[in-house]
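Below is how a single chain appears once it has passed through the pipeline. First comes the sequence as given, then the structure the pipeline wrote out for it. We keep one example in the README because the format questions we get most often are answered faster by looking than by reading.
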Amino acid sequence: MAAQTMNTDHTGNHPPGAEKMYHESPDTSINNSTQVNGLGRQMTHEEHQTAVAASRFGYGPLAHVSNDGRLPAFGGEFQPGLYKGVKDRKFANPAPLGLSAFALTTFVLSLINMSTRGVAEPNLVVGIAFGYGGLVQLLAGMWEMAVGNTFGATALSSYGGFWLSFAIILTPGGFQIEEAYTSAQSAAAFLDAFGFFLMGWFIFTTVILLCTLRSTIAFFTLFFTLDLAFLLLGIGYLHRNAAGEPNPPIIKAGGFFGLLAAFAAWYNALAGIADDSNSFFIIPVAHFPWSVKGQEIRKEKNERATV
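Resulting structure:
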């Protein structure tokens, strides 16, 4: 698309100063046909109109720009609301790394929870949870703190901690947590305790989910599906079958929503990585109608209707 030839950063945002160039007034963001793009030439009226239309669906060179200079919610930066772009930061965007670490580990565990190809033991996930989903995601969370993103630091560091604790609990013959329960009480006691563990993460994810209600559909979908996965897995461990085992249909349902969460995380990671330096297109993220970006779009439509 011709309108997407503008140079953008790793989030699809304009370079510093582009916000002012495109949003000196509400009218210029729509009607001005002589905007200057990153290639040093002026955008034609057709190109600018195409870019404006694309921004309503969350992609294109105007998708991540707000009238007040702040950038709207973007899962690729792990930002659920308006935020100021970090100029000349020493760190790259850590969100795609954390999202990718979360996605792969969740993907493998969810396939096992669904008993894909008859695999039911989660031992393989222990290594991934320690190395990638745990350590790497925790580091990404710390880097989010370094760039000033409280939400990203809280979420990524917490889920990195989740995977580390998950691996510690299930390390065969290592910390002997499961054996301690079964020797002192019974196998049911361990399953109950593990169900409590999962329900606690369901509560935490619900808290995080509430902070994405004004962000994008892509970002909200990630935490919504993850929330359902934790809920169903927790119920599966607490509400066991007649044999006293975690309820297979509920566990499989939790695995299904875990798969959706994994793909949603990868999608948001791709949105944060892809820009015009490495991709032929910008990933659409679809802002909610009641979000700040959605309200700006409605305002622009009303202004055009009254012209």
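The CA atoms of residues 134 and 160 lie 4 Å apart.

See the next section for the split statistics.
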